[in-house]
C-alpha cells in the first residue's frame, strides 16, 4: 500500500512538472512572437522613412537637412 501511495505521489509530481514546463514554454513562445512582431514594426517604419527620404531626394535632387547618416563615413565633396 505504501508503494502505491509513493507511485501516485510521483505521478502527480511528474504531471505538475510537465504542466509547469508546458506553461513556461508557451510563455517563452509568446514573448518571442511579441519581440518578432515589434522588430517587424520597427523595420517597416525604417523602410517607410527610407522610402520617403528617397522620394524627397528624387524630387528635389538634394538630401533633406533633417536626414542624418547613422553610419560613420564622409560623402565625397562632389555630392554637395
Automatic annotation (TrEMBL):
What superkingdom does the record give?
Answer: Eukaryota
Could you tell me the keywords of this UniProt record? Coiled coil
Look up the coiled coil feature and give its residue ranges.
18-49
> Does the record carry Coiled coil as a key word?
yes
Q: Where is the Remorin C-terminal domain?
A: 2-65
Under the heading InterPro entries, the entry gives:
Remorin_C
In the record, the note on similarity to other proteins reads:
Belongs to the remorin family.
* Protein's name according to its UniProt entry: Remorin C-terminal domain-containing protein
Amino acid at each position: 500500500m505504501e508503494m502505491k501511495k509513493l507511485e501516485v505521489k510521483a505521478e502527480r509530481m511528474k504531471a505538475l512538472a510537465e504542466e509547469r514546463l508546458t506553461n513556461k514554454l508557451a510563455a517563452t513562445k509568446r514573448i518571442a512572437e511579441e519581440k518578432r512582431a515589434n522588430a517587424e514594426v520597427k523595420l517597416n517604419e525604417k523602410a517607410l522613412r527610407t522610402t520617403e527620404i528617397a522620394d524627397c531626394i528624387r524630387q528635389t535632387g538634394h538630401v533633406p537637412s533633417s536626414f542624418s547618416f547613422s553610419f560613420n563615413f564622409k560623402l565625397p565633396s562632389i555630392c554637395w
